[in-house]
Amino acid sequence: MITREVDYAIRAVLYLSTQDRRRLVATSELAQEMVVPYRFLRRIVQKLVDGGLVEAQRGKGGGVRLTRSCRDISLFDVLQTVDPKALCVNACLNGHDACVRTSFCTVRQHLGDLQERLGWELRGITFEALQTPPACVAASV
């Protein structure tokens, strides 16, 4: 399930993907342009920083920018960074919540296959592909 937090994270990364990678974007600009509440966005940006998708610089002239090209960041990356549980089709696929029926469940394998396909599909959707028209700026940092 795509939560509001994941939705806002996707919006933030999408906006950053349209900017020159050398440019630091103020979080206030990011919040305004993507219509995301500023305080909520700051928490989301911190997760993106912790996950290595975004780097932040504090102080006057500071802001955030992507750590790599939008060709190299996928929807999977954002979901995995912000809310990994959103990727799980069913709790029985999570090793921590393994069901006692795992050894003989006829549904588990099908859900596992679906989970794998979902991961591959999300990895295949890059932020370059999400831009209309494509404006990926690949300038090195």
What keyword list fits this structure?
141 residues; mainly alpha; 2 strands; 45% helix; Arc Repressor Mutant, subunit A
Short description:
With 141 residues, the protein is mostly helical. The chain has a domain at 4-86: Orthogonal Bundle (Arc Repressor Mutant, subunit A), CATH 1.10.10.10. Helices cover 45% and strands 6% of the residues.
Explained architecture:
The protein has 141 residues and is mostly helical. The chain has a domain at 4-86: Arc Repressor Mutant, subunit A (Orthogonal Bundle), CATH 1.10.10.10. The protein is 45% helix and 6% strand. The chain contains six helices and two strands, in the order H-H-H-E-E-H-H-H. The protein has helices spanning 4-17, 27-34, 38-50, 75-82, 108-123, 127-130; strands spanning 54-57, 63-66. Strands 1-2 form a two-stranded antiparallel sheet. The model has no long low-confidence stretch (mean pLDDT 87).
